[in-house]
Design a protein that fits this description.
2 domains, Rossmann fold
Length: 278
């Protein structure tokens, strides 16, 4: 049985992983430093945590379910306690891309990250429809990268990814560099920023006298059809008026060189900024 040392098992992300790993084929050794997290695992999942050294002893895989800013310190702190065959897995590309992991040619590093349930889906139950994050009821896709290590290690890493993020539809194999483009450059730097501006725009409409419920219903309804058109879920096109409005507004809302956030050096700077303590 493949053994997994799960560090941060009672945290926000670690708890989700602990829940999905329960009953799997993996021998999971849960490590959690907070009393609240340990108690939650005990009460909700009937899981007893173990000492970190005991968890790492002979572990086949170590999953770092900890914040990005801690991955460098933790990975270096445990490195001499792992065998050369141990796979170290992170749940985000930021720290590995930034060079935070120990520079070991003999170490296998694997990264897996959820895409989260898609906007357009075939979910039918209330629980699945309201599972926006994924890993509980709604199906989602994932991305996986074998940063370094033997090719046959990929299958194990992907299997763990499919287990911890279940239920999973597609699993996409990408490089670490491509995953860094996906996050933070695409999903956070660009998409989350644009969405936050949408919320600010709705609040501005309300500030100018539009009833809050009307503003929310109008915006979310229009987003539904606009995204469906742009991402080819619906065989429609924008009206001439809408296209004119888009052309007129782009220079007002966006800097002409906004796509520079995808340049390699800019991506590196984004990751440097988010992996360093404030």
């Amino acid at each position: 049985m493949t053994s997994i040392a799960l560090l941060g098992a009672g945290g926000k992300m670690g708890y989700r992983l602990s829940k999905n790993l329960k009953g799997s084929r993996f021998d999971v050794r849960h490590v959690e430093i907070s009393d609240a997290g340990r108690q939650r695992l005990k009460d909700d999942l009937a899981v007893d945590c173990v000492d970190q050294d005991a968890a790492l002893d002979g572990a086949d895989v170590v999953v770092l379910a900890v914040p990005d800013v801690l991955i460098g310190r933790i990975s270096h702190g445990i490195d001499d306690k792992l065998s050369s065959s141990t796979m170290v897995m992170t749940l985000d590309p930021a720290a590995p891309f930034a060079g935070e992991l120990p520079q070991r040619a003999d170490r296998t590093y694997f990264i897996t990250h959820p895409c989260h349930p898609p906007l357009f889906n075939d979910e039918t139950t209330v629980e699945a429809k309201r599972d926006f994050f994924g890993g509980l009821h709604a199906k989602q896709h994932i991305v996986c990268a074998l940063m370094q290590g033997p090719e046959d290690a990929y299958a194990l890493g992907e299997e763990i990814g499919r287990t911890i993020y279940a239920p999973v539809m597609r699993s996409h194999r990408v490089t670490v560099e491509q995953m860094a483009i996906l996050e933070p450059a695409l999903s956070e730097t660009t998409a989350a920023t644009c969405v936050s501006v949408l919320r600010e725009a709705m609040d501005e409409a309300v500030r100018r006298g539009v009833p809050p419920e009307a503003a929310r219903d109008f915006l979310l309804g229009h987003l539904n059809i606009e995204i469906a058109i742009l991402f080819e879920e619906f065989p429609g096109v924008f009206s001439d008026a809408a296209n004119k409005a888009i052309k007129r507004a782009k220079d007002k809302i966006f800097q002409p060189d906004w796509k520079s956030v995808f340049e390699p050096e800019d991506v590196k700077q984004q990751i440097y900024d988010i992996t360093r303590p404030d």
